[in-house]
Amino acid sequence: MVVLADAASQVWFFGRVDADVFAAWGQVIGAGGTLLAVIVAIWIAIRDGRYRDAERRDNEAMHARLVSGARASNPPSLTISYSNYGSCPVTSVRVVDVAGRFGETRSTGWSIGGSTEPYVLGAIAPGQTVTTPPISVTWPEGQDVDETAALYYPTIVFFDTNGRWWERRGHDQPRRLLSSPAAVSRLPTGNGS
Question: pTM of the full predicted structure?
């Protein structure tokens, strides 16, 4: 004996349901699954894109991290030396700021030879070091500051061999500048001043 199924089926928690309703719900569930798969694929693509961008930026900054500054001499003739530990030269190296800190006291200004304009150190070849002329740092009036024990955070900008401008403050991570800094008229002379 053959029993033909009728157009409705019994589902234990719904009662009697028409076959077309089953088909419709199947399509809704399938569409929901497809939408979820698309959302997950887009999320993965965005996450991977961000990872690739971060990795690219890290690779770009690799050489910029190899330019490092250190105190070469203590105040009152504070000088700072910059070394290029990379395998390529950096050019247009400029000291654009020197900030000092002694405890909670912050410096109020700096100058090289009486000028607070950026000072061009020139180029630093691979494995070479350049040193600034003496830097004067001004402190707030009436503050007792031990300039020798104070911490100094010089900021430089420079141009790498890949055509990118970088800014680095102290030993912080370098920050890429998306536009070139302003022109500087104070070029170093042969006697270092």
Answer: 0.68
